[in-house]
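Operator note (shift B, R.M.): manual run for Zf-HC2 domain-containing protein requested after the automated queue skipped it. Running by hand, logging everything below so the morning shift can see what happened. Input copied straight from the record, untouched. If output looks odd, do not overwrite the archive copy; leave it for review.
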Amino acid sequence: MNDQNPTVSALTVASLLVDTEPYLSCDDCFERMDQYVERRLADRHHDDLEMTTHLAGCGVCAEEADALEALLREDAQ
Ligand SMILES: [Zn+2]
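Run finished. Output pasted below as returned.
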């Protein structure tokens, strides 16, 4: 009966980690944002899984990234 417990708890822990713990904190995200946005502008195929994962789940940082990208685009013109 107890045989199933390790599997269940491992799955539960995994799903909790995915749901509640983005790879980056907002502080980490802000620190890397300049570089990330610059690279995205230089190469639209550039991807940073940690950043995109955080931005997908954090509206504040996603908005900040959008604003920064718009700013850099204007500068480049
Ligand atoms: Zn954030």
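Quick read of the result: The CA atoms of residues 35 and 41 lie 10 Å apart. The two ends are 67 Å apart (CA to CA).
Leaving this for review. - R.M.
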